[in-house]
Design a protein that fits this description.
117 residues; mainly alpha
Length: 117
């Protein structure tokens, strides 16, 4: 695991230890699970609901390029459980999102041709 992975794992442990939703991701998950049928959502929530229903792989790819920490909090089961890596699937999602984000960073830093050719 890379240094970034170790840092994000430690950050997840601190995030779960203090049980404070400072990124509002748990609140977003709760609102998506409880208020999907309401009409009044802001633009970002509507797009996330649309991608979550129709294109979950695209949502994963988009969020992975942003931050693997956000991915692991968003994709783990339930909300406000503060359950770290509760199963192997959650850890696999973390490793895959870490790989995708590092790949995007490598492409942006060194250029597409340098990474793949």
């Amino acid at each position: 695991m890379s240094v970034t992975g170790i840092y994000l794992f430690a950050l997840l442990l601190v995030y779960d230890h203090y049980k404070i939703d400072w990124l509002l991701i748990e609140a977003l998950k709760e609102s998506l699970e409880n208020f999907v049928h309401k009409k009044r959502h802001n633009f970002i929530t509507k797009k996330i609901i649309f991608l979550r229903k129709n294109h979950p792989k695209k949502l994963f790819a988009v969020l992975s390029t942003w931050d693997p920490f956000v991915i692991i909090i968003y994709y783990r089961e339930g909300y406000n459980k503060w359950n770290n890596f509760s199963d192997f699937k959650t850890f696999g999602i973390f490793v895959l999102s870490l790989f995708l984000s590092n790949l995007v960073i490598a492409i942006l830093e060194s250029g597409f041709k340098t990474v793949f050719f």
